[in-house]
């Protein structure tokens, strides 16, 4: 199929882009981590899972995902009604080839949608990765600048002598307090200027007096703090230089703090995008895995249908020959009515089964009917996640440095769907055991 050829190219492109941005798609699968079964295998061998079958991780090269159950390829065969049989056996019920073809087409279409979403998600991850690298470079540059200023401050305090970091920190706090004190003085001066221009009522006069007293006290405090800073300096004339260095360093440290907050947000966005991509990638691999399962089924049921058609032609020819021989003038006797009735019943059953897109097999002759609702439900869960992924990808595209951490719909839906299906299957099993 052309779509399959396109998708093979898409998978190669996804892996190339992922490698370019320095991460592996296969490094995380979205289902929970469980210990692998080691039956029939030495304990020191671990085969890394690469796909999720429901909530169970498995390796698609060694195991089969049978509608939520993980089976060994060496030991079991999966049937599309949800059951499984030993590898040497054959499933009792199969769908018709037309039904299998429709399911393959459906899975191929889902592959194409998921492939496009994976490309979009990788583009988002690439942009987020570049933004994070740029922010990290900015933070590193500002950290180096702040460290350089700190070294200059040490030289101003102790010259060539070793300086106690606590003493440096004390000077920094004094300078910051001095700066805040100066800002308070300037603010008080503006208030005094404003109040003197207004009518002088008793409350305002009291407030003016209080402000002037505060300004005088702040100026005295400024002198004391300045003297204390000068005492700690190697050269007392460097007081202004010390203040400039401390204030510049403080501004850089505030910028670093803000950049780190933004960096944390972008890392959250990147982790969310990687989670979405992991679910997309797992579903892509699962659809490919299910297609390979259907390819084997299609080959088998096509052969079975051909066999039934050939057998039908042989029986039809025999019955027609018996009818012709029975009613010729040279032949005395009646047709084999029992064989004729058997053939008619079998032909009618065959027609009904093919019309209902089922191949009549052993189960039909045992009086049971084929039921593929388990397959439909399993496929529906994958299909339901696609619109969730679309919304998540669209939301991830519109993120910026002010965007808070978002909730990923497909991640929440992924686990909710699987847990709900697991609980329903448990309740069904308990119900069937009770009825027994």
Question: How would you describe what is shown here?
Answer:
There is one protein chain. 70% of the residues lie in helices and 6% in strands. The protein is built from 9 helices and 8 strands. The protein has helices spanning 2-20, 97-158, 165-196, 202-232, 239-326, 337-355, 362-365, 373-397, 409-435, and strands at 51-53, 56-58, 63-66, 69-72, 76-78, 84-86, 94-95, 358-359. It has a two-stranded antiparallel sheet. It has a two-stranded antiparallel sheet with strand order 3-4. Strands 5-6 form a two-stranded antiparallel ribbon. Strand 3 and strand 4 (69-72) form a beta hairpin. The longest helix has 88 residues, at 239-326. It is elongated and about 130 Å long.
């Amino acid at each position: 199929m052309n779509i399959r050829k396109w998708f093979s190219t898409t998978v190669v492109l996804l892996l190339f882009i992922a490698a370019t941005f320095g991460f592996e798609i296969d490094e995380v699968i979205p289902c929970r981590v469980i210990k692998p079964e080691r039956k029939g295998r030495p304990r020191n061998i671990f085969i890394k899972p690469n796909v999720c079958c429901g909530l169970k991780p498995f390796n698609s090269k060694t195991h089969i995902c049978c509608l939520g159950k993980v089976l060994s390829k060496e030991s079991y065969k999966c049937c599309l009604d949800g059951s499984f049989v030993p590898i040497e056996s054959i499933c009792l019920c199969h769908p018709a080839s037309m039904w299998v073809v429709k399911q393959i087409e459906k899975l191929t279409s889902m592959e194409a949608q998921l492939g496009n979403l994976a490309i979009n998600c990788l583009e988002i991850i690439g942009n987020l990765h570049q933004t994070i690298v740029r922010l990290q470079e900015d933070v590193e540059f500002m950290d180096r600048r702040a460290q350089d200023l700190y070294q200059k401050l040490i030289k101003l305090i102790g010259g060539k002598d070793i300086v106690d970091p606590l003493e440096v920190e004390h000077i920094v706090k004094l300078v910051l307090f001095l700066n805040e004190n100066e800002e308070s003085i300037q603010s008080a001066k503006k208030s005094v200027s404003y109040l003197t221009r207004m009518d002088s009522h008793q409350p305002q006069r009291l407030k003016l007096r209080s402000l002037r007293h505060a300004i005088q006290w702040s100026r005295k405090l400024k002198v004391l703090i300045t003297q204390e800073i000068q005492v700690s300096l190697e050269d007392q004339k460097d007081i202004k230089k010390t203040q400039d260095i401390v204030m510049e360093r403080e501004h850089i440290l505030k910028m670093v703090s803000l950049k780190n907050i933004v960096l944390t947000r972008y890392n959250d966005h990147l982790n969310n995008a990687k989670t979405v991509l992991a679910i997309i990638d797992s579903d892509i691999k699962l659809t490919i895995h299910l297609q390979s399962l259907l390819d084997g089924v299609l080959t088998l049921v096509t052969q079975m249908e051909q066999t039934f058609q050939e057998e039908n032609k042989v029986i039809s020819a025999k019955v027609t020959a018996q009818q012709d021989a029975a009613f010729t003038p040279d032949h005395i006797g009646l047709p084999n009515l029992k064989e004729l009735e058997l053939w008619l019943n079998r032909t009618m059953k065959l027609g009904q089964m093919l019309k209902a897109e089922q191949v009549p097999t052993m189960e039909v002759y045992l009086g049971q009917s084929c039921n593929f609702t388990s397959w439909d439900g399993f496929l529906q869960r994958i299909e339901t996640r696609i619109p969730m992924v679309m919304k998540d990808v669209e939301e991830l595209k519109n993120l910026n440095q002010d965007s808070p951490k978002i909730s990923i719909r497909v991640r929440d839906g992924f686990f909710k769907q699987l847990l709900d299906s697991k609980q329903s299957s448990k309740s069904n099993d308990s119900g069937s055991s009770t009825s027994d």
